[in-house]
Design brief:
Blueprint: H1 2-24, H2 27-43, H3 47-64, H4 67-83, H5 87-103, H6 114-126
Helix pairs in contact: 1-2, 2-3, 2-4, 3-4, 4-5, 5-6
């Protein structure tokens, strides 16, 4: 119960931060906060909220042409799809994130390195035997 209280407190803090960032027109901060909300939602098992937040982060990142933030949001969406058992959608998000990182010389986000193993598993399962 205590950890749920801390998650609720962190979520409320980020929502207030988002409200202020939107009022100030701080797009970079807005993308980061949407991503933070997605991460908290994902870690607490609220997949619909996580998906919504990661999608919002992606939209802002794309509008700003912030390729690093866009790749991270795509990776967050891949995690959500993986948890839902939607392998092809997970793979599509991973491919898009990897393409952005490769095209723009961006290092993989260490938080999402475990997704590389997921992608390899999907590739092995898709190969005809």
């Amino acid at each position: 119960a205590k950890s749920r209280g801390r998650v609720a407190e962190a979520t409320e803090h980020l929502r207030e931060r988002l409200r202020l960032q939107l009022a100030l027109g701080d797009e970079a901060g807005t993308a980061e906060t949407h991503f933070g909300l997605g991460t908290i939602s994902f870690s607490s098992g609220d997949l619909p909220a996580a998906e919504s937040s990661f999608e919002a982060a992606l939209q802002v990142a794309e509008r700003m042409t912030d390729f690093r933030a866009a790749a991270s949001a795509l990776e967050g969406l891949a995690f959500v799809m993986h948890e839902r058992g939607l392998r092809s959608r997970c793979a599509t998000y991973l491919d898009s994130a990897n393409a952005l990182r490769e095209e723009h010389g961006l290092a993989p986000d260490p938080v999402f390195r475990s997704l590389a193993a997921v992608r390899e598993e999907y590739d092995r399962a898709a190969k005809p035997r």
